[in-house]
Amino acid sequence: MDESPDYPRKPHRLEPSLRVCLEQLHQLSVFCRKLDADTYENDPELEKIHKERNYSWVDIITVCRVQLPNYEEKVKIFYEEHLHLDDEIRYILDGSGYFDVRDKEEKWIRIFMEKGDMITYVKAMQLFVGEPVWTAYNQPADHFHT
User: Fold this and answer.
1) For the domain 22-138, what is the CATH superfamily, name and number?
2) pLDDT digits (tens, 9 = 90+) for 82-94
């Protein structure tokens, strides 16, 4: 991915020939799967993933001006580098978009995702007191102590 400050929704490719394979993503703890998004409500493969990874919470959002309250504000958050203390999972039920991660040399990799694509970034277990809380911490997070 190029480092251009241009509109963040562009592909930002360095060169069309520079591609990252699934094995390279796996080495970065990025796991990709293709599922049938049309059957997500009763998909045995998705249910298997829930059980294997102990997922118990599902949140579905539609990212468009009409259906997402505070659309402009929320979309800006997608383009600010941040980290999470838990798994970051995206399963595209319709449409398409990008998911950006850094490689081991701190260079950006832009992953194009479309309907049926599921990506999991970082495998960890998080324990909660009470309801789950997913808080993003914007980078640089030098002030953040774990």
Assistant:
1) Jelly Rolls (2.60.120.10)
2) 777 777 888 999 9
